[in-house]
Amino acid sequence: MRTRTRVLVLRAIGLGDLLTGVPALRALRRARPDAELVLAAPAWQRPLVELSGAVDRLLPTEELAPVAWDGPAPDLAIDLHGNGEPSRAILRAVSPGRLVAFESSDGPRWEAEEQERARWCRLVAWACPGVATDPDDVLLARPAAPPVVAGAAIVHCGAASASRRWPAERFAAVAELLTRRGLPVVLTGSAAEAPLAEEVRRLAELPPEAVLAGRTDVAELAALVASARLLVSGDTGIAHLASAYRTPSVLLFGPTPPDRWGPPPGPHTVLWHGTRVGDPHASRPDPALLAITVPEVLAAVEQRLRLPVPAAAGT
Fold this sequence. Notes:
By secondary structure, this protein is α/β, with parallel strands linked by helices.
């Protein structure tokens, strides 16, 4: 009996990174429909990986950690993690029959200004010539579990670095408007961002139960976003969930411009006042982000709320 071809993909980073990699994973699935497609990624991402329908199984690992590959060596390994030697070395250690990676002997050149979803589709197209790729193929299936709050207006005030965090008092002004509009407002984020969410709650005079930061896992967050009336956030992972479910959103960009990480066409208003790429790891909010004013965001929110809600994704 013929042995099934094995394909290993490494993308062990964050939530937004996983979701921007979905179009590439889908293209790879089309190119190798009979292969066993394995994604090496953090275990907490499993619910979203399953909702993508793009891979056969998740192999748990952490960022730039060794991959515990079991069984015969993969026939093909693809580095969807980055463009450096550390990630290539992780895949090389499992002795794949072929290793495809940017800036390697078997891979294209890295283009720094390329849109993130298009970047990884281009790498898959190198690995599988002739495959059809669609960088906007981001929709996920809807989670089976109901949301903790249905039809919520989500205000996500956190981000991985201070450079991407709009000030708390500005988010509070947005939360106040949404409350006046009669929407159930919730404040999301990680457990580490719970104090920031609590500050926004206090400034906006919301009830304690509005703070969901640190109280939802990724499956619950997906269900919340999938049913939400609106999301307001910076350039962070939850914004990509809004794209995955066609949830209307107002997205605040800085220091990275939206032509790198912005959403595909959809019910999204993108605000950006920068002229260049800033420092994504800076300890203070980026000047381009601070240039986005409260009245500007409130106007964008009002416009989004007046527009019809698009058909739900992943039904």
